[in-house]
């Protein structure tokens, strides 16, 4: 109440032209919000660090120091991944894409990975589009939040976040992660497959 009274008083005392500028800005912001699209995707990532079907391979054995809470792990350990993404938690469920990139043990004392990967979608309405995901994965937290740093195709100019949970362990070497992607993309971004048309317009 107090807040709105103050706002009202401020507006009332504003020179008319400033009020119009403020109104125009507010309308422009509302229009920009209406011109964006929210996309929520959920899929499961299979990180298989050994055995048959391995998709995650350690590239760098960190020179140390040894991690205080993660037996056998060293600061700087770096793994390259090409993990399968599926629509359900089972590896046998329908394929959704691949998560290609790396994670590095970047916590000296905390169990924290720095993740940097591209989600390449291979099915559904976003087949052919990619999402760039980067961020801090504190594996001791139930839910981790990483950033959507951009994308291609339907995810061009995407912003947003990814909620990242450990769904289950299939075996010592096979961890299943649940990823919920919340992305905002400008509504003007062309759907995948519109690339040719856009190129044609540019060539005129
Ligand atoms: C995804 O797109 C590729 C390339 O256009 C195509 O070959 C493939 O069949 C598509 N996959 C699905 C599941 O639609």
From TrEMBL:
InterPro entries, sorted: Allene_oxi_cyc_Dirigent, Dirigent
GO cellular component, one term: apoplast
Keywords from the UniProt entry: Apoplast, Secreted, Signal
A Pfam family hit: Dirigent
Localization annotation: Secreted, Extracellular space, Apoplast
Main location: secreted
BP GO terms, sorted: phenylpropanoid biosynthetic process
Signal peptide: 1-33
Function comment: Dirigent proteins impart stereoselectivity on the phenoxy radical-coupling reaction, yielding optically active lignans from two molecules of coniferyl alcohol in the biosynthesis of lignans, flavonolignans, and alkaloids and thus plays a central role in plant secondary metabolism.
Family stated for the protein in its record: Belongs to the plant dirigent protein family.
Assembly and binders: Homodimer.
Protein name: Dirigent protein
Organism: Triticum turgidum subsp. durum
């Amino acid at each position: 109440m107090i807040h709105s009274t103050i706002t009202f008083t401020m507006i009332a005392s504003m020179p008319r032209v400033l009020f119009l500028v403020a109104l125009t800005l507010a309308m422009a912001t509302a229009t920009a919000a209406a011109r964006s699209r929210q996309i929520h995707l959920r899929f499961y990532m299979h990180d298989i660090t050994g055995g048959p079907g391995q998709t995650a391979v350690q590239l760098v054995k960190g020179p140390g120091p040894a991690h205080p809470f993660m037996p056998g792990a060293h600061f700087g350990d770096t793994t390259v991944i090409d993990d399968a993404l599926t629509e359900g938690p089972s590896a046998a469920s329908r394929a959704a894409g691949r998560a290609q990139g790396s994670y590095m043990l970047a916590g000296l004392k905390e169990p924290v990975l720095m993740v940097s990967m591209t989600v390449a979608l291979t099915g559904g309405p976003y087949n052919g589009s990619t999402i760039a995901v980067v961020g801090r994965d504190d594996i001791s937290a139930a839910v981790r939040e990483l950033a959507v740093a951009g994308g291609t195709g339907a995810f061009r100019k995407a912003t947003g976040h990814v909620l990242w949970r450990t769904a289950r362990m299939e075996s010592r070497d096979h961890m299943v992660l649940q990823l919920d992607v919340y992305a905002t993309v400008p509504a003007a971004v062309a759907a995948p497959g519109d690339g040719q048309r856009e190129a044609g317009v540019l060539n005129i």
